[in-house]
Amino acid sequence: GLSEVTAMIESVRKNKEDTTRCKIYLTLQWDRLSIIYCLDTDMLIGCSCFESNFSVVTDSWEGLLKMFRKQAEERLATTIQMNIRITLKHFSKRERNTNMRRDSEGLSEMEQLDSVCFDLWVAGMETTSNTLYWSLLYVLLNRKVLDRVYEELDTKIGSDRIITTTDRPNLNYINATINESQRLANLLPMNISRTITADVVIAGYSIPKDTVITPQISSVMYDPEIFPEPYEFRPERFLESDGSLKKVEELVPFSIGKRQCLGEGLARMELFLFFSNLFNKFHIQFHESNPCPTIEKDCGVTMKAKNFRVVMKERS
């Protein structure tokens, strides 16, 4: 976490000009991958309305899987972190010992490794970078929020040192701002499909066992009874009257239950470290070419904002 934060800061500082213009962009371009493609692969392949377009998705996946395999093979031949090397050797050894035997799903050991890498890449990188992208956009569009972010950093940190996770309990407004960014951005308005394991009645509707359902997270995140004026950016929703951080059970960007995101703890840590250090180190404002970017969303695997440019100047 901290090494990545330091690398981010140094990459901005390397520019010799006093003012560094940065084009913020996402790790992956997913415009072509509509959320509908995530629902049920087997079902969609058999539908004529999706059959001609489904290769767009599978081709993108194949390209990523080939990249992961190449990276794994290169790292097996080099000295890298011990835990990573042990993991790669384990998969490689099992592949040799089983003579390419496949599991019940028809996957070999190395294909399983490809899938693990794919899960980590898509679930870990796309979502975190996208949330930071939205956070930056929302904060810069709301001057009062921006001023309060800088005020808290100056009061609680008071220097340009690297902010660590030990500072997190002292930066309540920044935590609230990140929470509100996650709520309003609502990266995954529809979650991954699930199957009902038993007959159930919800709001008077009978849903039989084995029915495939798609949880709609936005129905909670934008519920006006829980979040008044839900389309307004208001970090104060997550603060108590005394300024402490309020726990709101309905904030569910990582979903809920047994199948909620396994990386929630890591993601929250990363969001805090990158967001707080970015604003602690730099004065940030929109570039003059686009002083008021749109908050219109592009639909993909996650909901992303349209690209925008900012000016970043190191704080004294």
From TrEMBL:
Q: Which UniProt keywords apply?
A: Heme, Iron, Metal-binding, Monooxygenase, Oxidoreductase
Q: Which GO terms describe its biological process?
A: organic acid metabolic process; xenobiotic metabolic process
SUPFAM superfamilies per the UniProt record, alphabetical: Cytochrome P450
Per its UniProt record, the required cofactor names are: heme
State the family it belongs to: Belongs to the cytochrome P450 family.
* PANTHER family assigned to the protein according to its UniProt record, in alphabetical order: CYTOCHROME P450 508A4-RELATED, CYTOCHROME P450 FAMILY
Full protein name:
Cytochrome P450
Organism, scientific name = Caenorhabditis latens
